[in-house]
From TrEMBL:
This is 1-(5-phosphoribosyl)-5-[(5-phosphoribosylamino)methylideneamino] imidazole-4-carboxamide isomerase. The lineage of its organism: Bacteria, Bacillati, Cyanobacteriota, Cyanophyceae, Nostocales. Pathway: Amino-acid biosynthesis; L-histidine biosynthesis; L-histidine from 5-phospho-alpha-D-ribose 1-diphosphate: step 4/9. The gene is hisA. It comes from Nostoc flagelliforme FACHB-838. The keyword Isomerase applies. Its EC number is 5.3.1.16. NCBIfam families: 1-(5-phosphoribosyl)-5-[(5-phosphoribosylamino)methylideneamino]imidazole-4-carboxamide isomerase (TIGR00007), PRK13585.1 (NF010112). CDD domains: HisA.
Length: 257
């Protein structure tokens, strides 16, 4: 299972939000490229970037910071936030970004998603951000009536390479991932699922590892890395290898059932 560090960009800085609330942001660095290098130096093989300003504006805003990150590291990068037209997606691919994450247009313009999946095969990921099981759009500022599972099935049919599922109520809270919602999602689609939101410990990561046979192939970790609740090297030893000797002692595996 991939452990993917998150870098959220707001006004050019690396921040974390609490439950997607822009008014409850915490700045962790003024130099996102240095943060990216830090995670790669610790063993990250993939990075997750969100342009928070872009998500609100509906277009790429933090292009300078994104370009600096792309130049600073050599690992694959996935980026979301404000990608609502072909030009924005192409703009990122021109920088060498590996995957574009589409969110709002998956609900509002599914035909465009299909066209982009056809033009850029295996490079389009759909981000499904859910609040009480329903999809939120436009930087999580609006909640639709579309069910997360319903949208996931549709996006799989349109050619999405993977689904990133975020439980908004858990994002940035360190209260643990929504395992039930991930199981429900895995039951209806066969493309890879990347979990996001609430991960607070290696124990949480191991609970997600138990879902890997069902299709949960990666996990995005944000606040817990920045606060030190999770050490990336430790997480990669325990999850990246899946070796039993790397799993912390006295762990209650019954909680993963």
């Amino acid at each position: 299972m991939d452990v993917i560090p998150a870098i959220d960009l707001l006004e050019g800085r690396c921040v974390r939000l609490y439950q997607g609330d822009y008014d409850r942001s915490q700045v962790f660095s003024d130099n996102p490229a240095d943060v990216a290098k830090q995670w790669v130096d610790q063993g990250a093989t993939r990075l997750h970037i969100v342009d928070l300003d872009g998500a609100k504006a509906g277009k790429v805003v933090n292009l300078g910071a994104i370009e600096a990150i792309a130049h600073a590291v050599s690992v694959p990068i996935e980026i979301g936030g404000g990608l609502r037209d072909r030009t924005s997606v192409q703009q990122l691919f021109n920088l060498g970004i590996q995957w574009a994450i589409l969110g709002t247009i998956a609900v509002e313009q599914p035909q465009l998603v299909q066209e982009l999946c056809q033009e850029f095969p295996e490079q389009i990921i759909v981000g499904i951000d859910a609040r009480n099981g329903r999809v939120a759009t436009r930087g999580w500022l609006e909640t639709s009536e579309v069910l997360a599972t319903q949208l996931a099935v549709q996006m799989q049919e349109l050619g999405a390479a993977a689904i990133i599922y975020t439980d908004i109520h858990r994002d940035g809270t360190l209260i643990g991932p929504n395992l039930e919602a991930l199981r429900e999602l895995a039951a209806v689609i066969s493309i890879p699922i990347i979990a996001s939101g609430g991960v607070s410990s290696v124990t949480d990561l191991l609970s997600l590892l138990a879902l890997e046979p069902q299709g949960v192939t990666g996990v995005i970790v944000g606040r817990a890395l920045y606060t030190g609740d999770i050490l990336l090297k430790e997480a990669l030893r325990a999850i990246g290898t899946g070796r039993i000797q790397d799993i912390p002692p006295n762990l209650d595996f019954s909680t993963f059932a």
